[in-house]
């Protein structure tokens, strides 16, 4: 691939505005994102007047992640600790206004039932009955609570297919795509060759938009790549001008998207990557995927 | 004797105090009948040898004169350069104050540990939202609940461009439920919004113009 000739390539400088929400379980199963940014193009000369072409082919790849939608399940230890802390807080806490009202009302009722009830004295102190007592309010709130049905935590009871975005809502998933590289059909992070005149980040954006039959809206987290994987071609393919390839990975977070089920997509957790990726590739990719 | 005392007074009276103390003590021991004089706690006259006994302010180190608190000025808003972002505001908002505060503290600690300089960390006033419910039979709405939205802002500057994606990802992955996160560049309008309006001043200004 010819080296880029001397040209003013503007590298846009970001001032981004990201608005992230953790909503309840929605049908999209994806965290809502809204991104608006103002590009301030700082003209930077990325001119390289090299007479010798670089022997490496450049690829831009995107590591598209879907962030978890709901919180993770707790360990048994975490469960026990949470219960213990809750119990301790309850024991140390003071009564709230509502609870005090409940107690006062109950007390007043018992005093009313007693034989030596002096209604004039009571009403003089208190100044008239209220229409709704605290107990009534409590009952209405209990009724409302019973009507509320929270959605199920775990949707893939039946086992959603691996290609669906909505599996494993508690973990973050990475997108894998099957592509033909060197006449082999392998699973890898979606990538595309770099073309002259564009930044590597634009290559990554192009990759995302050019995925067949899929419509993913993603937010890129920055201009800098997060990882690099370089490999040399096997000896018979190697020539003077291309010794191997370097793949630059960019991180992006899924904001909205859908894909048809037929296409070879895969959303996997980090622990499952081992079953799909080649070992040397996996080693480099593992370094920048966080498993939080 | 009088001239001697005057000379001693003119000098730094440190040694004099010491001597006077000793003298006083000895006096009180030798003549307990005259104890009333020793315990009278009166300042001695300027000619007396014990004048200035008990001074200590000259022994303390000099303090800088206390300045009056200046009017709060806005800190410089840094602009973005090629290698770093400018002043950014991370706003954490939600209904549950405990979780919101804990999350903002977490972000602050994360910045400290990753070496990002935190310029300011403050809270915006709480906003109360009343939830009104209209029952099916009647027409009048009544208040069902009051929801309070709490907001905390962590402001940092000079976030390294290479660090940014990692930082953002860690923040987003650790975001608790019920909390909204928003990252924006800091503007002067944001700063001015924190101050209370002064209606009298504005009235006077309107009258002038």
UniProtKB/TrEMBL annotation, chain A:
One of its GO terms (molecular function) is structural constituent of ribosome. GO terms for cellular component: mitochondrial inner membrane; mitochondrial large ribosomal subunit. Keywords: Mitochondrion, Ribonucleoprotein, Ribosomal protein, Transit peptide. Its main location: mitochondrion. Residues 56-149 form the Large ribosomal subunit protein mL46 N-terminal domain. The keyword Protein transport does not apply. The keyword Ribonucleoprotein applies. InterPro entries: NUDIX_hydrolase-like_dom_sf, Ribosomal_mL46, Ribosomal_mL46_N, Ribosomal_mL46_NUDIX. SUPFAM superfamilies: Nudix. It is found in: Mitochondrion. Belongs to the mitochondrion-specific ribosomal protein mL46 family. This is Large ribosomal subunit protein mL46. It comes from Salvelinus namaycush (Lake trout). The lineage of its organism: Eukaryota, Metazoa, Chordata, Craniata, Vertebrata. The gene is mrpl46.
UniProtKB/TrEMBL annotation, chain B:
Keywords: Mitochondrion, Ribonucleoprotein, Ribosomal protein, Transit peptide. InterPro entries: Ribosomal_mL48, Ribosomal_uS10_dom, Ribosomal_uS10_dom_sf. The gene is mrpl48. Belongs to the mitochondrion-specific ribosomal protein mL48 family. GO terms for cellular component: mitochondrial inner membrane; mitochondrial ribosome; ribonucleoprotein complex. PANTHER family: LARGE RIBOSOMAL SUBUNIT PROTEIN ML48, MITOCHONDRIAL RIBOSOMAL PROTEIN L48. It is found in: Mitochondrion. Residues 89-184 form the Small ribosomal subunit protein uS10 domain. It comes from Salvelinus namaycush (Lake trout). It comes from the Eukaryota. Pfam families: Ribosomal_S10. The keyword Transcription does not apply. This is Large ribosomal subunit protein mL48.
